[in-house]
């Protein structure tokens, strides 16, 4: 089945700097790659997603890139703000067997003012 | 608000108690999920229901018993739990089983004494 690896597990950046979180997946048939943000006391919320027919997607300060050949995808946050501090999860799905999302282990991002 | 509600938000129970967690989605989705979130395994899929049928059970101990009476409601019945079952239990829903965004509820923080 699908296996998703996420790095780093923790990340600290200065306010205004960029943050990059990387994930790799194992099932070449996977075709849907969302990113979730989880703030303290809340459930994960989708912030951006990408499908396998697209290489990059942007939404204001966040962007996701996908390299299907290498089977990795990344989340980029520019001009970070303290409210970006949270745990971020990547996930992959849509591979063989129509499996639901398989999540990475999460990255705790701290933006230091 | 994601359209997925969970009650209670916090629960403390002894090992001999029986309790139930409730999830309700107002999105018209056909698939619902239970996840366990702990420090050791950040997002561990427990059960998947599609059109009210259980389609996945990831080797979860029998002391956890799910119930899906209709497509909008999902329960997790708890009986004779162990302290290591203390965790955040998250419910999610999606349009169908695979390849689509999952919407998460806020979770129930469970403590087993």
What does this protein look like?
The complex is a heterodimer of chains A (113) and B (113). The mean pLDDT of chain A is 93. In chain A, strand 4 (32-38) and strand 5 (45-51) form a beta hairpin. Chain A has 113 residues and is mainly beta. In chain A, 36% of the residues are buried. Chain A has strands spanning 4-7, 10-14, 19-25, 32-38, 45-51, 56-59, 62-67, 72-77, 86-92, 102-103, 107-112. Chain A has no helices and 11 strands. In chain A, strands 2, 4, 5, 9, 10 and 11 form a 6-stranded mixed β-sheet that branches. Chain A has a 5-stranded antiparallel β-sheet with strand order 1-3-8-7-6, with no helix packed on it. Chain A is globular, with a radius of gyration of 14 Å. Chain B is mostly beta strands and 113 residues long. Chain B is 0% helix and 57% strand. Chain B contains no helices and 11 strands. Chain B has strands at residues 4-7, 10-13, 18-25, 31-37, 44-50, 53-57, 64-70, 73-79, 87-94, 103-104, 108-112. In chain B, strands 2, 4, 5, 6, 9, 10 and 11 form a 7-stranded mixed β-sheet that branches. Chain B has a 4-stranded antiparallel β-sheet with strand order 1-3-8-7, with no helix packed on it. The interface between A and B is medium-sized, with 22 and 24 residues.
What descriptive keywords fit this protein?
heterodimer; A: 113 residues; mainly beta; six-stranded mixed β-sheet; five-stranded antiparallel β-sheet; 0% helix; 54% strand; globular; B: 113 residues; seven-stranded mixed β-sheet; four-stranded antiparallel β-sheet; 11 strands; 57% strand
Mind sketching the topology for me?
The complex is a heterodimer of chains A (113) and B (113).
Chain A: E1 4-7, E2 10-14, E3 19-25, E4 32-38, E5 45-51, E6 56-59, E7 62-67, E8 72-77, E9 86-92, E10 102-103, E11 107-112
Parallel strand pairs in A: 2-11
Antiparallel strand pairs in A: 1-3, 3-8, 4-5, 4-9, 6-7, 7-8, 9-10, 9-11
Chain B: E1 4-7, E2 10-13, E3 18-25, E4 31-37, E5 44-50, E6 53-57, E7 64-70, E8 73-79, E9 87-94, E10 103-104, E11 108-112
Parallel strand pairs in B: 2-11
Antiparallel strand pairs in B: 1-3, 3-8, 4-5, 4-9, 5-6, 7-8, 9-10, 9-11
